[in-house]
Write a structure and sequence with these properties.
Layout: E1 2-7, H1 18-26, E2 37-43, E3 49-50, E4 56-57, E5 61-62, E6 72-76, H2 88-99, E7 103-107, H3 109-116, H4 130-136, E8 151-154, E9 157-160, H5 165-176, H6 181-193, H7 196-205
Parallel strand pairs: 1-2, 1-6, 2-5, 6-7, 7-9
Antiparallel strand pairs: 3-4, 8-9
Helix pairs in contact: 5-6, 6-7
InterPro entries: Class_I_gatase-like (IPR029062), DJ-1/PfpI (IPR002818)
GO molecular function: transferase activity
Keywords: Glutamine amidotransferase, Transferase
Length: 211
């Protein structure tokens, strides 16, 4: 069984996790025989958070409840509140998860938080620019490993800038292996271009159409 954890914090950027949450929860394009997936929201306590878009959500569990193993995935969305001390606990847990082989996805402001605790110092990564990291992550020393790309996957860490929620989602779905390769390719092409031909390819790639 795979467990997907989404970290909740005030001012969470709703749109950055829109694609990944929709596909993981709906399972509408999953391949056959995908192991059971459990999705849980997690935070430093069970106080409801308010997203940047004004939605309120109560976490399902606490950081201490996260299973530290290779079957776990932790998604860290962008937010304007990553600098607050109370989020240090999830960053400590993130390092434990990386060491255990779990998949970590960080986007936008979360990349600065990762940078500030040294997690990006020895992995290829991206963010909202080097100037952004130098400004918001004073302890960052990962400059040699920075790639000026919308999203980057290195081993079990996937990072993205604030505009790359779609590509970030593609890389996460690829890493956790819930889509067939041709389904994921057509899915990304359709949602990134709007070309209806890719929607047809997407539908044709699904298990019900491959018998």
């Amino acid at each position: 069984m795979k467990t997907i954890y989404i970290y909740l914090l005030d001012t969470l950027a709703d749109w950055e996790i829109g694609y990944i949450m929709s596909e993981l929860r709906s399972k509408r394009f999953f391949k056959r025989d995908v192991p059971e997936i459990t999705i849980k929201t997690v935070s430093y306590d069970l106080t409801p958070i308010t997203t940047m878009g004004g939605f309120t959500r109560t976490p399902d569990c606490l950081i201490a409840d996260i299973l530290v193993n290779a079957s776990s995935t932790l998604l860290l969305p962008g937010a304007d509140t990553w600098h607050e001390q109370k989020h240090q606990a999830i960053l400590v847990k993130t390092r434990d998860l990386l060491d255990a082989g779990a998949t970590i996805g960080g986007i936008c402001g979360a990349t600065a938080a990762l940078a500030n605790v040294g997690i990006l110092d020895d992995r290829m990564h991206t963010s909202n620019g080097l100037v952004f990291l130098d400004m918001f992550a004073k302890a960052y020393h990962g400059h040699p490993h920075y790639l000026d790309e919308p999203a980057v996957s290195d081993r079990n860490l996937i990072t993205a800038n604030s505009t790359a929620g779609l590509l970030w989602t593609k890389l996460i779905l690829e890493k956790i292996g819930v889509f067939e390769v041709d389904t994921l390719t057509a899915w990304y092409q359709y949602f990134s271009t709007g070309d209806a031909a890719y929607f047809f390819e997407l539908m044709q790639s699904l298990p019900a159409n491959s018998e």
